[in-house]
Write a structure and sequence with these properties.
The chain has 15 helices and 12 strands. It has about 425 residues and is an alpha/beta fold. Helix 3 packs across helix 4, helix 4 runs parallel beside helix 5 and helix 7 crosses helix 8. The chain is globular and about 95 Å long.
Amino acid sequence: MATELLAIQTDAVPTLSELYGEVKPRFDAFYECGRDLLFREEDIQEARLQPAPVLYGHTVYDVSQIDNPTGTYKDRGAINAALEAKLHAQRAGVPLTDLDTATAGNHGASAGLAARLIGVKAHAQTADSASGVKMDNMTSLGVDVQAVHTDITAAIKCATELGEQDGHHFLPPYNHPDVITGQGTLGLEVIQSMRNHGVVGKVRWLVPVGGGGLISGLEMARRYADEQGLLNDIDLELIGVQMAGGDLSNRAAQHYTSGRPWKSIEDLFPNGNYDADNDGTFAIPGNLTMAMLVETPIMTVSKGQVGGAMAYLSKRYGRNIEPAGALSRAGLEVYLREHAGGPRTTNITFTTGANVSPELYRRFMEAHHQERAEVAAQTDQELQTYRAALWSLGAMGVKGVEGVRQSQRNGIRVGTTQCVGGNW
């Protein structure tokens, strides 16, 4: 059975400038009313650059959000949106008793945290395949979890309808200006940390992408900081990262840009090559986040590459990092390897979550080891081919540089490189 997806109307997608027009006054209000101080009081982890080893000659920093109360950056957006909902209800003179949301897990826990802060009840609709670890995280925060839906679309529809009841408010996981603003505060703190570290020149942010809330918030932060003159000596670029087989947002953006409609996952993955292990990044872009996704380069990484990044970050931080939380690091390793000869840059990754079951972690480690074995086998085969070519040349009495020239003239394949007519 095809899994239905929420459609996005063409005329409902704003430009990035229009979206910024919605978010800018929210940034102003956030700082004017001291919510940055409230974040510290609520143990929201301040975003600071943490030096990482140089990679392919490039400077690297990581920004972690795994020490937030729910182990994820999503606390920022949920708290900011919940505070705005409470303020709106007070101004309108109407009661606010319940927050309703739809989630793959992390946002539901953040909604529970936010609901506690403003003194209301939180309800989360999720798929019946939701992660047990994330379910436990939600219930520990008092969230009423309904894991009865076949997919995230059904969960979103249900939560939206419940949010229309008297005293209820729907708290979207990413597609709302207040949520985007909250996530954007992460970017503003990173920019301040960049300045504290004396970072200048070309800077690249590798950003994990699910529904697009984080990368949209970071772009809004970039624009806001630029207006404040905080990026005068910095050329900041954002690149999104998704896992192959879970790059629903990237595919939806491509379909949207080319005018191709979609109604189901099968429309976006016609070969059925989607991976159920994407754990939170297999999200449906909204009309606001689509504005960012169609304007942003998004790269994909393999499951094994994500597993490798999880292993690296888990060792670095002493706790298991979830797949979505390791996307940024995986993207960095792939990007810099492919651009190893380019100008030296400063690269910043975002470790965004540490809520993962042992079973899911194991599957990604298996994918990582399998991919490494395949690469090693391919490398061994190329080495054997290379040795055979040199042996052949040696048998002809040709050695050294002349051997290379001879191979070029004879069109001998050495490794994966074909030498033909003197050109590599």
